[in-house]
From TrEMBL:
The gene is pyrB. Heterododecamer (2C3:3R2) of six catalytic PyrB chains organized as two trimers (C3), and six regulatory PyrI chains organized as three dimers (R2). Gene3D superfamilies: Aspartate/ornithine carbamoyltransferase (3.40.50.1370). GO terms for cellular component: cytosol. This is Aspartate carbamoyltransferase. GO terms for molecular function: amino acid binding; aspartate carbamoyltransferase activity. Coiled coil: none annotated. Catalyzes the condensation of carbamoyl phosphate and aspartate to form carbamoyl aspartate and inorganic phosphate, the committed step in the de novo pyrimidine nucleotide biosynthesis pathway. Carbamoyl phosphate binds at residues 55-56, 105, 136, 139, 264-265.
Amino acid sequence: MKHLLATDGLDPALATAVLDTAEELKHTLLGREVRKLPTLRGRTVITLFYENSTRTRVSFEIAGKWMSADVINVSASSSSVNKGESLRDTALTLAAAGADCVIIRHPASGAAQRLSGWLAEAGTAVVNAGDGTHEHPTQALLDAATLRERLGSFEGRRIGIVGDVLHSRVARSNIHLLSALGAEVVLVAPPTLLPAGVESLPVTVSHELDAELPALDAVMMLRVQAERMHGGFFPSAREYSIAYGLNERRMKLLPEHAVVLHPGPMLRGMEIASAVADSPASAITEQVRNGVHVRMAVLYHLLASEGAAA
């Protein structure tokens, strides 16, 4: 594996190998007082974030440090980007300085792909940590790891993705990955929050949340991304919550074994009730925990395994 840019087209066998590695790393570190492995000693990992982040950035930093890599954080607000430097020049500077892997979050869809082309000659690996409304592959992998842990397998499982699908790179990555791993994906959203061409995706589409819940093995609530919205996509936050929020009443419609996910940050009271987010069915904290191990596994497959980028 040279880069991780998207789940669209990702070999299911490779995705499963990453999930297996994450599980092995999790068990290896379990109970250790010092959570440190020498796997990436001497490697330099740089996070390059042009958008705000808590979970993704912190978990990548912890993942790199737990594997003994040198991890350097670069943010647009404190870099030469503020002086007008282009993404290409920034990337080439980081590669010339010795970066073995650049993890990028950028508001433009396709930014990670462009970066991988510019850094091909240097042999620097690129991980897409979210590009515009395109993809967020490591989030989908950590969601898959959490679901596999809770449900055991993907075959025959029905996973609902609810809410602002239109603006969600998390939804896109999960659609491609979960369907490739054998799950049936159901999108539940108002028509205004579904992307054009949704009929070409390997999904079932519904506008009625209550009707879908009894047949779901897991439900993934999406954040309403107000910062990407220009215009009225729904009448009000209250009406959105009434139609698409996961509250205590709706939670009772789910099967007893069903898992509740959310990529965060949560808008409690609108997308999901606190009683649901904090319930035993919720795997939201597990998602964050698994995110560290999954990102460790991604770095391993990029930088340390046989066939990794030089």
